[in-house]
Write a structure and sequence with these properties.
The protein has 20 helices and 22 strands. By secondary structure, the chain is of the alpha/beta class. The longest helix has 22 residues. The radius of gyration is 29 Å and the shape is globular. Its main location: cytoplasm.
Length: 612
């Protein structure tokens, strides 16, 4: 191992082609995890890396593994397992960028929801690096369309996330179907016992690389929040955009659909805005970010995944339009501003039912977020008038020579119409501002009491025993930890008869609804349907997307709020069916006594036969 950490990529034993790509991407100094992991992987060691998202770990494993890839061999030499399709796409794109000067190199992402026939054709053409989600990689291994007999290395990216999503058994199955003589790198933000067990079982004398997470957000970022209900968000955002003196802003929302809808609404209100999300082609994403850098775009509406890695000096503000369920996501979001010692501002919208999430963010960041005053109509009016006066002053100072023609024209008009210069100026000001009046009347937005009712902070629901056990990694099998947020039960029209597993449901919801898997609650599988608990208050556009456009195992899930009884009549699929009544052609119903605790329901007692 290196006695001292390298301070530049040139000090690392990377190939010239990779060093050229790194230089073109603007990388100058390796991040701490890159400086520690790259030399170890180049030496052939297995790696056990503990690092948060956003520390540069993709380059930490991609750069050294690419150095050993042979483009002349059209067979998988590196396999990367990722928990979500968004991350799989992101990692695959990173490999492609780093290998842009390696002729004949191909990387292939494999994930559910993509056409299987297209994946089969691409696998036949050959790829040196495969990046996939566990379920789809297993499908191809079973089909024998993915052959790993020339595999040199396997990477488990965000292993703790794969554990939370229920993929850890799939990961172990894949590891058992890879060559024994291969290099393994496991990266995880935390190291719960099940992940440690995988490392002990499948890694060969691994070297540990640990990067301590930042415990709090930067002191150079001013953080404020506004309590506002969902249907008033757009009006509240518009007021803030009117009066905040910002250069460029990133607005974070939860779903890909919301990025497009909000960007279109802001454009209609006269702001220069564009959307960026995981469904966009890479070249379009790059052009949009370049517009933000050049100043031809002022507002970027993004999801967490799409905004990863964005470093634009102009970004002075970050707006959390939808509060994140995860405090780590909040830290990552506001880190898009205040970079390299610059100052920045972060604003957070919080609905009354989301106060618990605000408290959780404050605990995690160890900072109190101050409540901001929502701009009033008078404030917006004064700001528009000040802006108009500044435009007039700037035009008089900078365009005086070009104004001579208009001066003569209006002087002639003043004489012919017998009107004063002030009257003419008033008419011109009205013409200029009639589409955006200087005097505004804004709709009322309800005000909420700061921090809610007294004692909210101390009366939060305590974690139950199951949730505490899940933190230690030894939660009961088949039961997900219960998140500390208000939950709502939803019904999915897929069940055991469709071959569905809990991991399929978690993966689909995490990918399509952009909900962190730790906030996906208890899942119950029945024969013809399933139920799942999710955070309350799901945006209508997200629910509509989940209802109409999401499939699991080829079956539309038709997700909707579950309006059925608390305990469905149909038994969970994993239980045994009642004994069959052959004469009736169906199943006998066991007599169901009333639940324990009902004083009106005497429980039948077994009587001993006489003579005993």
């Amino acid at each position: 191992m290196y006695m001292s950490l390298p301070t530049s990529f040139a000090e690392l034993a990377l190939t010239p082609a990779i060093l050229k790509a790194v230089a073109e991407l603007g990388y100058e100094q390796p991040s701490p995890i890159q400086a520690q992991a790259i030399p170890l992987l180049l030496e052939g060691h297995d790696i056990l890396g503990v690092a948060q998202t956003g520390t540069g770990k993709t380059a930490a494993f991609a750069l050294p593994l690419l150095t050993r890839v042979n483009p002349a061999i059209q067979a998988p030499q590196v396999l990367v397992l990722a928990p979500t399709r968004e991350l799989a796409i992101q990692v695959a794109e990173a490999f492609q960028r780093y290998a842009c000067h390696m002729p004949g190199f191909h990387v292939l992402p494999l994930y559910g929801g993509q056409d299987m026939r297209a994946q089969l054709r691409q696998l036949q053409r050959g790829a040196q690096v495969i990046v996939g989600t566990p379920g789809r990689v297993m499908d191809h291994l079973r089909r024998e369309s993915l052959v790993l007999n020339q595999l040199q290395a396997i990477v488990l990216d965000e292993a703790d996330e794969m554990l939370r999503m229920g993929f850890i058994d799939d990961v172990e199955w894949i590891l058992e179907h890879t060559p024994k003589q291969r290099q393994t790198a496991l990266f995880s933000a935390t190291m719960p016992p099940p992940i440690k067990k995988v490392a002990d079982s499948y890694l060969n004398a691994p070297k540990e690389v640990k990067i301590s997470p930042e415990s709090s957000t930067g002191s150079n970022i001013e953080q404020r929040y506004q309590m506002v209900s969902g249907h008033h968000k757009l009006d509240a955002l518009t007021r803030i955009l009117e009066v905040e003196d910002f250069d460029a802003m990133i607005i974070f929302v939860r779903t890909k659909t919301a990025t497009v809808e909000l960007a279109e609404k802001l454009e209609a209100r006269g702001f220069s805005a564009a959307a960026i999300n995981g469904d966009m082609a890479q070249n379009l994403r790059e052009r949009t970010i370049d517009r933000l850098k050049r100043g031809s775009l002022d507002i970027l509406v993004a999801t967490d995944v799409a905004a990863r890695g964005i470093d634009v000096e102009r970004v002075s503000h970050v707006m959390n339009y939808d509060i994140p369920y995860d405090s780590e996501a909040y830290v990552h979001r506001i880190g898009r501003t205040g970079r390299a010692g610059r100052s920045g501002k972060a604003i957070l919208f919080v609905a009354p039912r989301e106060k618990r999430l605000l408290f959780a963010i404050e605990r995690a960041t160890q900072q109190k977020i101050e409540m901001m005053e929502l701009p009033t109509g008078d404030t917006v009016t004064r700001h528009r008038i000040d802006h108009f006066k500044k435009q007039l002053a700037d035009t008089l100072a900078e365009k005086r020579e070009e104004l001579e023609f208009f001066y003569d024209l209006l002087a002639e008009f003043s004489v012919s119409q017998d009107v004063s210069a002030e009257e003419i100026a008033s008419a011109l000001a009205y013409l200029c501002q009639k589409d955006r009046p200087l005097q505004v009347e804004l709709p009322d937005i309800p005000k909420f009491q700061e921090r809610g009712n007294k004692g909210d902070r101390d009366n939060r629901r305590p974690r139950d025993e199951r949730s505490e056990r899940s933190e230690r990694g030894d939660r009961p099998r088949g039961r997900r930890p219960e998140p500390d947020v208000p939950m709502e039960r939803f019904k999915l029209q897929v069940g055991k008869e469709h071959g569905v597993r809990p991991g399929d449901i978690v993966g689909a919801i995490a990918n399509e609804a952009n909900i962190d898997s730790k906030y996906i609650g208890n899942i119950k599988l029945f024969d013809g349907f399933s139920t799942v608990e999710l955070p309350a208050g799901m945006p209508p556009e997200t629910l509509n997307h989940m209802r109409n456009k999401v499939f699991i195992r080829g079956q539309a899930i038709r997700m909707a709020p579950d309006e059925g009884p608390a305990y469905h009549d149909e038994r969970p699929a994993r239980g045994k069916r009642p004994p069959r009544d052959r004469d009736a052609g169906g199943y006998k119903d066991k007599p169901q006594g009333k639940r324990r605790g009902n004083d009106d329901a005497p429980r039948p007692r077994k009587r001993k036969p006489k003579g005993e």
